[in-house]
Amino acid sequence: MKARAYVNFALIKYWGKKDEKLRLPFQASLSFTIDKLFTDTKVTVNKKLIKDKITINGISDERLNKRVIQHLNLIRSKYNIKDYVEVTSVNNVPTSAGLASSASSFAALTLAATKAFNLNLSKEELSRLSRYASGSASRSIFGNFAIWDVGDDKTSIARPIDINWPEFKIIVLMIDKSKKPASSTDAMKESVENKLLYDEWVKQSKIDLDKMLIALNNKDIKSVGEIAEKNANHMHDLIESTGITYKTKESLKAIDKIHELRTKGVLAYYTMDAGPNIKIITIDSEVNKIVDYFNEYETIVCSKGKDAHIVLN
Ligand code: 2P0
User: The whole model's pTM is what?
Assistant: First the structure.
């Protein structure tokens, strides 16, 4: 069975776990699943195997395989399955990336593996299973805009939000291909330990989420952009309080250019995740102006992606 799941970018970030094992977040997050970056994962049951056989982007790397096997073991133990599988996973990310995503990878793996095991799970159950592997993967089960709710093991899953806004775009600015200085899992842990700042983050992100929903419903790009930018900056301030930083000189230069663009009346806002690349939040009418302004960078203009799904062949 081959499944495809798309990368999602959070407009309201998930940052920090109240339960490490169940991967339960302290706050809800809201994301946009995009069309241009995705993972295709093929899972085939092979009764002759005595352990799983895994290839990711054409290679078999023990460290990368470990997390995949862990997730397969979790699915097997939950549904009492004994079979081993062959997994072939390919990230469709343009050459220079730095954008390989655990979200699309684990959402695709969850869908392909459960189908290969003949489990026909609901999207809710797929989102929960994906969450166990990587928090943000819970959101990649859904295309378009989705909210991953806070709650307990049963209720903390992603759900789609009914916003039809085809003009909404995210432009990925390729800044840097270097490896991140710290995994998001580790950086989150350190951020949570900074109790005073962390509590403030949780409180503010709830306010940001409510405001974001109103702005999205109104298709108000200025408010959506401003809220997302503020939320991302708050997360990065929190991260930087631990001594870790994901922003490089190049990221800061690009951010300056986005501010410059705004003074020229262009509707361009940014968000950033656990890496140096910048994602520009905008609408259709502004795309050409932005791409032209950033002509020395590689850019990927993204529209809404679909729900994770099974692909033939
Ligand atoms: C997000 N990020 O909401 C946030 C913003 C990065 C910055 O979710 O530890 O790979 O596997 O649950 O999902 C990246 O973290 O972390 C992430 P784990 P994950 O998109």
Answer: 0.96
